[in-house]
Amino acid sequence: MQKEKLRLDKYLWSIRIFKTRTLASAACEKGKVKYKGENAKASKNVTLDDEYEIKTLHKKWVIKVKELLYNRVQYTEALNYYTDITPLEEMERIQFESATFNTGKRMSKIGRPTKKNKRDLDSFLEH
């Protein structure tokens, strides 16, 4: 069953790498999506076994196209349409960053900050 050609921005949106198709095409325009080391245009046709390097806000992806997906599906199903071949170093960096993520809460729940602590914190945040 041969369907119509599939644009890169639509594919990246449908496999849920980007939240909107507009964000996917903007990433292509800004050079954040690469095919064989070259910037990929949003209008590029996706074919099986293509490999793309994608930079998003939190992760550098390297994906290989397993199947073409024309419509957006739920995340668990979208995983079947590409293979994540992101290098191990990048995965370790992401795990390290998520482990050290600052929630903004104090480490200790013992006691409340004094007025002086609050003033110091406010003056720090103002500068």
Kindly describe this structure:
This protein is of the alpha+beta class and 127 residues long. Helix content is 35%, strand content 15%. It has helices spanning 8-14, 21-29, 75-78, 88-99, 115-126, and strands at 33-35, 38-39, 51-55, 60-65, 82-84. It has a five-stranded antiparallel beta sheet. Helix 1 crosses helix 2.
Quick tags:
127 residues, alpha+beta, five-stranded antiparallel sheet, elongated
Instruction: Give the rounded overall mean pLDDT.
Output: 87
The total strand number stands at 5
Strand/helix succession: HHEEEEHEHH
Largest sheet: 5 strands, antiparallel
Strand residues, percent: 5-15%
Coarse structural class: alpha+beta
Low-pLDDT parts are: none
Say which CATH homologous superfamily of the domain at 1-88 is assigned.
RNA-binding S4 domain
The CATH topology annotation of the domain at 1-88 reads as Structural Genomics Hypothetical 15.5 Kd Protein In mrcA-pckA Intergenic Region, Chain A
Share of helix, binned:
25-40%
CATH architecture of the domain at 1-88: Roll
Terminal CA distance:
62 Å
The top level CATH class name of the domain at 1-88: Alpha Beta
Spatial strand arrangement across the major sheet: 2-1-3-4-5
Q: How would you describe the shape?
A: elongated
What Rg do the Cα atoms give? Answer: 21 Å
Number of helices: 5
Can you describe this structure in just a few lines?
With 127 residues, the chain is α+β, with helices and mostly antiparallel strands. The chain is built from five helices and five strands.
Task: Give the arrangement of secondary structure elements.
Elements: H1 8-14, H2 21-29, E1 33-35, E2 38-39, E3 51-55, E4 60-65, H3 75-78, E5 82-84, H4 88-99, H5 115-126
Antiparallel strand pairs: 1-2, 1-3, 3-4, 4-5
Helix pairs in contact: 1-2
